Amino acid sequence: MLYQALEETPGSMGIEDRKRLQPQAFFSSSRPLRQEDVLEYESELKHVVGSLMDTTEAEGDSPLLAITKRLTDPQIRRMGNAQLNTLPDGKKFLQNLLGLLCDLHVQGDLVRRPLQS
Predict the structure, then answer these.
(1) What gap in Å lies between CA 21 and CA 13, rounded to an integer?
(2) For residue 43, what pLDDT is reported?
(3) 11: which of 32, 63, 96, 102 fits an S-S bond (Cβ 3.0–4.6 Å)?
């Protein structure tokens, strides 16, 4: 999806990157697809997006903004900015906080600090 969004957005990729990162070209090897190949492809796409982040602003007709809009969930796109930028209800936030912390813990995404003596 990211490659397709990059390909459909003018100014997001050079001709060489467009040819090199086309999935059929990148994964053209006759050997079975490995996880390493997918991770390398993901890294290459992230490099292209990172270069867009370094060279464009988030305002106006930037390719990065166009790609972000293209990849945004349609339901979120239909919501207004006022609704998206409203702080959540404090009670609902606290009710969902424990679930969020549990999910982060299971994924290993919580930062542990050593106990200080």
Answers:
(1) 10
(2) 94
(3) 63
Q: Which residue has 């813990």 as its token pair? A: 105
The two three-digit tokens of residue 41, written as one number: 């492809």
Instruction: Indicate the angle between helix axes 35-55 and 63-71, nearest 10 degrees.
Output: 130
CA distance 21 to 27: 9
d(CA 62, CA 12): 9
11 with 63: CB under 8 angstroms? yes
Indicate the pTM of the whole model. Answer: 0.62
At residue 117, the pLDDT reads: 61
Q: Which two tokens stand for residue 30?
A: 């006759």
- d(Cα 10, Cα 68) in Å, to the nearest integer? 13
- Kindly give the parts of the chain with pLDDT less than 70: 56-60, 113-117
